[in-house]
Amino acid sequence: MADRYEPQTFEAKWQARWKAANLFETRQDPGRPKFYGLDFFPYPSGAGLSVGHCRNYIPTDVICRMKFMQGYNVLHPMGFDAFGLPAENEAIKNRTHPGPMIERYAENYRRQMELIGIGYDWSRSFRSSDPEYYQWTQWIFKVLLERGLAYQRMAAVNWDPVEKTVLADEEVIGGLGWRSGVPVEKRSIPQWFFKITDYAQRLIDDLDTVDWPEGIKQMQRNWIGRSEGVQFRMRVAMPHEEKSDEEFEIVERAPHFEVFTTRIDTVYGMTFCVLAPEHPSIETLEGFVDEAHRAEIRAYRENAKRLSDTDRQATTREKTGVFTGAYAINPANGERVPIWIADYVLMHYGTGAIMAVPAHDARDYEFAQKYGIPVQPVIGPAKGVSPETLPFESKDGFLVHSGEYSGLSVAEAQKELGQWFEACDLGTRKVQYKLRDWLISRQRYWGCPIPVIHSADGEIQPVPDEDLPVELPEVEHYEPSGDGSSPLAAIDEWVNITDQDGKLGRRETDTMGGFACSSWYFLRFCDPHNKRKGWDPAEVEYWMPVDCYVGGAEHAVMHLLYARFWTKVLYDAGLVPVQEPFQTLRNQGMVLAPTPFRAPREGETLGVGEEGIQITFEEAHSLPEDQVFHRYEKMSKSKGNVVTPDEIVEKYGADALRLYELFVAPFEQNVQWSNEAIHGQVRFLSRVFKLVDECRSAYDPLWRDAIDTGESSEAGKALRRLTHHTIRRATDDISGFAFNTYVAAMMEFLNGVRDVLKTTPASEIRAEASEMLETFVLLLAPAAPHSADELWDLLGMEGFTYQQDWPELDERWLARETVTIAVQVNGKLRDTLEMPTEADQATLERVALESERVRPHLEGKTLRKVIVVPGKLVNLVVG
Ligand code: ANZ
Questions:
Q1: Greater model confidence, 638 or 47
Q2: 152 C-alpha to center of ligand 1: Å?
Q3: Which of 88, 139, 217, 782 has the most Cβ atoms closer than 10 angstroms to its Cβ?
Q4: Residue closest by Cα to atom 10 of ligand 1
Q5: Which residues line ligand 1 (CB under 6 A)?
Q6: CA distance 681 to 656
Q7: Residue 369 in contact with residue 356, Cβ under 8 Å?
Q8: Residue 249 has pLDDT above 60, yes or no
Q9: How are beta strands 172-173 and 873-878 bridged, if at all?
Q10: Is there a contact between 160 and 173 (Cβ–Cβ < 8 Å)?
């Protein structure tokens, strides 16, 4: 037998045996508890998996393997997020069809996942582009439609001129398309939306019921953006109007607009108000002002169209605006305030208009400073005290210059002013969310067709269930049309149909964005082959929720929010029994790899935060050494710094790769990749093989009988303590996502065993050594399953480690051993102490000096020396 880890000789063999035995097929034994472990639905890219992706799959695999050994029915499936822009764009680039292309890529992913020994139940796999899958994506679309949660409307959308498609707001980053990197434009076309805003409050509330990283929960709360405030009416002052009661009559008929504020307590500090450039009241206002103002207003509004919301709100951008020439009345004190138009106010948040309080809002302050608008502080740090510096944004304060409300705290004033505004019918208290409806339609080919028909009389009819799926037609040309319509619109045979009543109609030609497909795949895994339904309720009832969901934090908002929303809708429709799909969520850290950069040359400029220009590895080699420097960057194809599992498995073996990925750092942390450090794992595994090889002649499969009756020797006891301590650590660490300390515990186990065997050969403590050997191999199995099965086989055991019971903990062996320590003063025994065996010198010395019995003998004397003999005595020399 090999006394070294030689993965080439056995890893492929075990993978073949696992496959032949259908080892990872989902078991649904009614007497056992269930465990659903899931990785984020990957898009299979042409570049294949990197060792970065493996940091997602290996830990989930470790947990699922342990859970199975612990007796759970485990569902551990994998499928592919095949529809969507990335696949389509890649296919266009390669001049091929996305269908067969994505199939090849997915096959390659599967090959790589098998190569690193991930135990997925492949019999449950599917791609979101399979008609048998998207039939039910369409069916869920209809559920949303029936419940009034899917609707079509004209909408200004972000048009990406390169991708030739509409982008969701979250796909626009700094005004640029997330893939194309070019500025997006605004266009108005009919679009499909899901009404996720109806679920805003529940999406916030139910975060309290799941075990997710706090940071992700907070990002979701921020994204949904709940604010409590007051919405009230501002009336436009007539041009001649001063503060006078006689004008009241005329003024009542004057136009008005509503504003939303979260700080009604600052209403006395309003010195201007602002309308968003798209605000419909601006047209009315134009009727009140002179031609010069009108021209300025029009120019400003024209300009504002070009900017995305993200740009408009960027704090780094200088604020711009125009004075309309008109005024409005502050309802709190009747003062006239100028009405401005500025693009830092967004049309689709609140009412698209604000009361501006420059003394207490940084945005308004900046604006007021720039345009010379007065600033009136109304909140101070203490009663009757005005703030020293402005803007004073703290909510811990008291009102000043606020009429009868002066002296109240911010909280009191918010309550009282809110009541007053409501009582006088000036406004109402309101809860506002930043969340907007989910734009789902794409004018692209490679997506799930939206299952509706537009009849000749303009009605929208859902496609009947028996006609689902609405299949994507096979086409040669599927490139975006470039005029904003879907390429499907050009296929007359597909588009034009007769409906049930024999009337002519047109199919909807938009497809659903990829986020729809990934919003329910976790349900399909529960019952993937069902032809009559999306899922059998009993299956979903059994497996849901996902117990452990693992993937990158970059999906913190969109995917997770959408999947939660769909789950809630399906729950409300009585179709699933859970309100939250993912009970526990964990995000792995990224794997970073050295990436070459060079200094900018003349005429080149660096972006914000950039230290150099990224170059290819070839270019780096061709340049003088002092011109190139390396930075650790996320492993990605575009950076050319990818390390593949294929090359690592070939060199070091799958188990060494697995252990390295687990051991290198805490699960959530980013890590810097290093091939060299894998050697440490190769050495560890080699030492494990050596240990088993040396001890296996002492191995007795019937050790259980001997160990319970036999008296253990000191060495035997030491071995049992080590064994059971490691069972505890490995079990707790794996459950707690502490994979690095799990591997460390295995390493310490090995070292401890070596120490014991130095004094006592295994043949003298056969039962304890056998327990140790078996436990070692089984505890190692989730992390290094190929090696574990090889070692199991070498011990002469049948079957796979995966099918064995997880080692059972005997708590008695966890009790800490103690020794009696004699404490002497100048050689005379004064006290004895019961101390843990592992107590170090400093601890023994401290406890000895603190002893009640010892202290009187030290009084008034100087401690000259302390002699500690660990495990035996402490002698205090005084004089
Ligand atoms: C007066 C005020 C005084 C405000 C003050 C804040 C501080 P959140 O908390 O994010 O909901 N606002 C309202 N609608 C807006 C829009 N469409 N575009 C840009 N800003 C808008 O923010 C609510 C606050 O943001 C509101 O309260 C309003 O400014 C502004 F010391 O009103 B506030």
A1: 47
A2: 29
A3: 782
A4: 227
A5: 227, 260-263, 266, 276, 345-346, 349-350, 352, 354-355, 357, 360-361, 432
A6: 5
A7: no
A8: no
A9: unpaired
A10: no
Q: pLDDT tens for residues 347-358?
A: 989 999 999 999
Q: What sign for the dihedral angle of Cα 695, 699, 703, 706?
A: negative
Ligand 1: distance of its center to the CA of 262 in Å?
6
Phi/psi at 324 (5° precision):
-80, -20
- β-strand partners of 323: 340
Q: What does the pLDDT look like over 169-194, one tens digit per residue? A: 667 877 788 778 898 888 888 999 99
Count Cβ atoms below 10 Å from residue 704 Cβ, excluding itself.
Answer: 13
Render the burial of 814-853: b for 16+ CB within 10 Å, e for the rest: eeeeeeebebbbeeeebbebebeeebeeeebbebbeebee
Do 544 and 571 meet the contact criterion of CB atoms below 8 Å apart?
Answer: no
496-498 and 504-507 beta bridge pairing: antiparallel
Average pLDDT over residues 570-583: 98
The identity of residue 583, as a single letter, is Q
User: By the 8 A CB rule, do 293 and 380 touch?
Assistant: no
User: pLDDT-derived band of residue 246, with 50, 70 and 90 as boundaries?
Assistant: very low
Q: CA 488, CA 504: separation in Å to the nearest integer?
A: 18
Annotate 518-551 with three-state secondary structure.
Answer: CCCHHHHCCCCCCCCCCCCHHHHHHHCCECEEEC
**Rounded Cα distance, 118 and 127, in Å:** 18
Name the pLDDT band for 618 (thresholds 50, 70, 90): confident
**What is the residue with the minimal CA distance to atom 28 of ligand 1?**
261
Q: pLDDT over 70 for what percent of the chain? A: 97
Q: pLDDT tens, 458-510?
A: 889 999 999 999 999 988 888 877 777 788 988 999 999 886 677 789 999 99
Q: Whose CA is nearest to atom 31 of ligand 1?
A: 360
pLDDT at 579: 98
- Ligand 1 pocket: which of 223, 224, 257, 261 to mutate (most atoms within 8 A of CB): 261
| Mutation pick for ligand 1 pocket among 221, 222, 227, 262 (CB with most ligand atoms within 8 Å) | 262
What's the pLDDT at 503?
Answer: 77
DSSP string over 181-220 = -SB-EEEEEEEEEE-GGGGHHHHHHGGGGSB--HHHHHHH
Cα 422 to middle of ligand 1, angstroms: 19
**Can you give the pLDDT at residue 410?**
97
**Token pair of 791, please?**
């070692």
Residue 857 CB partners (closer than 8 Å, separation 6+): 825, 830, 878
**Spatial CA neighbour of 8 closest among 686, 650, 645:** 650
Q: What is the pLDDT of residues 816-842, one digit of tens each?
A: 767 889 999 999 999 998 887 777 788
Q: What phi, psi does 509 have (nearest 5°)?
A: -105, -5
The token pair that represents 630 in the structure block: 């390396």
pLDDT of residue 19: 97
Kindly report the backbone phi and psi dihedral angles of residue 328, in degrees, each rounded to the nearest multiple of 5, phi listed first.
Answer: -130, 165
Whole-prediction pTM: 0.86
Q: Give the orientation angle of helix 675-695 with respect to helix 739-759, to 10 degrees.
A: 40
Residue nearest ligand 1's atom 11 by CA: 227
The helix (H) or strand (E) run that includes residue 775 is helix 766-780
Q: Are 677 and 706 contacting, i.e. CB atoms less than 8 angstroms apart?
A: no
Ligand 1 atom, smallest distance to 359 CA: 31
User: CA distances (Å), 16 to each of 8, 22, 32, in order?
Assistant: 13, 10, 28
The CA 228 to ligand 1 mean position distance, Å, reads 11
- The predicted structure's pLDDT at residue 815: 74
Tell me the CA–centroid distance for residue 260 and ligand 1, in Å: 7
Do you find a cis peptide bond into 391, omega within 30 degrees of 0? Answer: yes
Residue 243 scores a pLDDT above 50: no
Q: Which two tokens stand for residue 15?
A: 């993978």
- Answer whether the bond into residue 469 is a cis peptide, omega within 30°: yes
Task: Indicate the average pLDDT of the chain.
Answer: 92
